[in-house]
Specification:
0% helix; mainly beta; four-stranded antiparallel β-sheet; single chain
């Protein structure tokens, strides 16, 4: 039974930084796609960043150069470092997981993941 628990969301000023964390438990598969997506009121769910078990990473165009996804396998934790935050980054952020040999070409679509956490709010 996979569980994902996000943390690290906060209110920050434009230009500021945050690091989101996602604690993953119960995930015993060695091939997976992990990532972050966000939801804002009145906007479509948006994939933000994904990372595959082989380390391949992809970002949404809107966050390239500002956000960085990483994972610490020893701690079973997924991170999202967010720098240069903008008001349009305001959203509930979720981490998600999907069993897969790699992250598919459409992994950044908002509904790609099959499991996700309760979310953490980021307000800029």
């Amino acid at each position: 039974h996979v569980q994902l628990v996000e943390s690290g969301g906060a209110s920050v000023q434009a230009g500021g930084s945050l690091r989101l964390s996602c604690q993953i438990s119960g995930y015993t598969y060695y091939r997976y796609c992990l990532g972050w997506f966000r939801e804002a009121p009145g906007k479509q769910r948006e994939g933000v960043a994904v990372i595959a078990s082989d380390g391949t990473i992809s970002y949404a165009e809107s966050v390239k150069g500002r956000f960085a996804i990483s994972q610490d396998n020893g701690k079973n934790t997924l991170y999202l470092q967010m720098d240069g935050l903008k008001p349009e980054d305001t959203a509930m952020y979720y981490c998600g997981a999907r069993i897969a040999a790699s992250c598919a070409a459409d992994a950044l679509r908002g509904d790609y993941f099959t499991v996700w956490g309760q979310g953490t709010q980021v307000t800029v």
